[in-house]
Design brief:
This protein is of the alpha/beta class. About 40% of the residues lie in helices and about 10% in strands. The strands form two sheets. A seven-stranded mixed beta sheet has the order 1-7-6-5-4-2-3, with helices on both faces. A four-stranded antiparallel beta sheet has the order 8-9-11-10. The longest helix has about 35 residues.
């Protein structure tokens, strides 16, 4: 890599090494250009390896860095890495017995064990997905398919045109629900108007009183066929009240989907499991092990309370997934006819660490964020935006009294940009009730309170420096 010393990271890692090269997009593009020079002659593997190590690796984000406090990514855990390496070398497609007997059976056994681990109903089942986005999309399709069946037609055959008034179709979601639900209604042909956003309460959970009011006020004009409870919003980590939402779904005959892509693993942690009461009554649940368990991407699942509901996804062909095939074919439960052996890295990680360590690894970041929120209660220069349910805390830095709201808003954006550009820490930014807030995320099992307090210290110092008498918006 040209000028590699300018971007080189500390090979030993640690808090004082950079998160990534710090290079600009133009510099990264220039360094990567040799990799995509698809020439007539190939490169020896040793030379290709040096090219990748020199030109690409310095620009990748170091997820194991203690200053990486912005997203849900994590470095692959040792047991998971072993499974991923075997899966990659074997290169199995696992959706069908005839292409991978061991891969297909491993997936079926794994999802059964996971249903038992999460104490779901005996009739439950699951399938691996490429991402939580696709899991959410499939859940909404299944909900709509069941709604169509109740209306007397097959959604797979007639689509939304089979409904007498498709414009009435509606899905109730939290105002903080994940944007993948917007992708889902787009792909299903419902349009974004089908999502009815429900305000959140002071702790960023869906407001039950408002939810009930909307349901009873709008039932004459809307067909609420699905409700989504988010179990760990990506904005603040809040867990919507699943059990009361299940009650409401029972009253109106709606499908309850729990988007637990980020937070569902925390059901396994004593002290946090109560947040997920009612999950056994959900029709579907999304979970991303690659978020909390350091499993290589892709590693996502969709659970169903009733395994028979997966039949709504089944497609047969003359050569693949035949209707008369007696073997287990996981591909009948989701659209891709080819998927990697994602079950193996999860299985190998769970077996390597054991459940006691898994729970300990999950608890550490939750405790770190909980303790951080407690420590910041007395800090006048920090405004916390919520009480954390899980491993996320949003806050605003206000270094001096009397600042205008517009100045405070711009300061949060400036702190985010300056911190990321500094290359030693990464915090995220989000918008809550129309105002920007900095967002600290803990998923790494080594996360500790002191690491986050150091980040707070640096944010406050930077805020004091840039918000002096000459502070101007857009600095």
């Amino acid at each position: 890599m040209e000028n590699s010393s300018e971007y080189s990271s500390d090979p030993q890692g640690g808090a004082h090494s950079p998160l990534y090269s710090g290079a600009t997009p133009e510099q990264v593009a220039a360094d990567l250009a040799p990799l995509i020079d698809f020439a007539a002659d190939g490169l020896p593997l040793d030379e290709l390896r040096r090219l990748i190590e020199g030109q690409l690796l310095p620009h990748l984000m170091d997820y194991s860095h203690p200053g990486f406090q912005s997203m849900f990514n994590g470095a692959a855990e040792a047991g998971a890495l072993l499974g991923a390496q075997v899966a990659l070398a074997a290169n199995q497609g696992v959706t069908n017995w005839q292409v991978s007997p061991g891969g297909a059976m491993l997936e079926e056994l794994c999802v059964g064990a996971l249903c038992r681990l999460f104490d779901l109903s005996p009739e439950s089942d699951a399938t691996f997905m490429y991402s939580g986005t696709y899991a959410n999309q499939q859940a909404l399709y299944l909900a709509l398919h069941r709604h169509a069946q109740r209306a007397g037609f097959d959604l797979a055959q007639y689509g939304v045109s089979g409904f007498d008034a498709p414009e009435r179709l509606s899905i109730l979601v939290s105002a903080d629900a994940h944007f993948s639900l917007r992708h889902a209604v787009r792909m299903l042909g419902l349009g974004e108007h089908a999502l009815m956003s429900v305000p959140v309460d002071e702790n960023r959970r869906i407001d039950l009183d408002t939810l009930r009011e909307i349901i009873y006020r709008c039932r004459a004009t809307h067909d609420f066929f699905c409700m989504v409870a988010t179990a760990g919003t990506t904005a603040t980590g809040a867990v919507d009240p699943i059990a009361p939402m299940a009650d409401l779904c029972g009253e109106i005959g709606a499908w309850l989907h729990v988007d637990g892509a980020y937070g569902y693993a925390y059901k396994l942690v004593p002290g946090w499991s109560h947040l997920f009461v009612g999950d056994r009554r959900a029709d579907s649940i999304t979970w991303d092990p690659h978020k909390q368990l350091s499993i290589p991407i892709p590693n996502s699942l969709l659970f169903l309370r009733d395994s028979d509901e997966f039949a709504r996804m089944a497609l047969h062909s003359a050569y693949f997934n035949r209707a008369d095939d007696p073997h287990p074919n996981p591909g009948l439960k989701s659209p891709p006819s080819t998927r990697p052996m994602a079950a193996l890295p999860l299985v190998s990680s769970l077996r390597h660490r054991g459940l006691d360590r898994i729970v300990s690894d999950l608890q550490a970041p939750l405790a770190a964020i909980r303790d951080l929120a407690s420590e910041l209660e007395s800090r006048a220069e920090i405004q916390t935006c919520h009480t954390p349910d899980t491993g996320i805390l949003c806050l605003r830095v206000v270094p001096k009294p009397g600042m205008k709201e517009s100045e405070i808003d711009e300061l949060q954006h400036l702190l985010y940009r300056r911190t990321l550009a500094g290359g030693r820490r990464a915090v995220a930014i989000t918008t809550l009730d129309g105002r920007p807030a900095l967002r600290l995320v803990a998923v790494d099992p080594t996360a500790a309170l002191q690491q986050f307090l150091e980040t707070i210290h640096e944010l406050v110092q930077l805020a004091v420096e840039v918000s002096g008498p000459h502070f101007q918006q857009g600095d």
